[in-house]
Amino acid sequence: MFVSSRPLTLDHAAMKFVITLERDEDGVWIAECPSIPGCISQGATKDEAAANIHEAILGCLEVRAEQGMPLTVETRLVEVVIARWTAGSARHHFCARDGGRACR
Prior knowledge:
The chain has one helix at 46-66, and strands at 2-3, 8-10, 13-15, 18-23, 29-32, 40-43, 93-94, 102-103. With 104 residues, the chain is an alpha+beta fold. The strands form 3 sheets. The protein has a 4-stranded antiparallel beta sheet with strand order 1-4-5-6, covered by helices on one side. The chain has a two-stranded antiparallel sheet with strand order 2-3. The longest helix is centred in the middle third of the chain and has 21 residues, at 46-66. It is extended and about 50 Å long.
């Protein structure tokens, strides 16, 4: 997780956002702002992706404000501890591709 150190401004109010950075299978860094649905960018490096998501956040906020949408949605960072995991130890898991239903 990466927290941008550059404050964002919209109507002179500073806003801070948590973004996620993850490397995809092609080595490209994907940046996402979970509190703004659909706000995603990328870059060849972590720094480039972070700079690009900064611009994407500004653009997303502007569009959401113009359309009268809430600027953000509530998100929560939660840590989950998995103790003593071994291959095959989970009987069920939840699949994002399956709408969150348990699959085997």
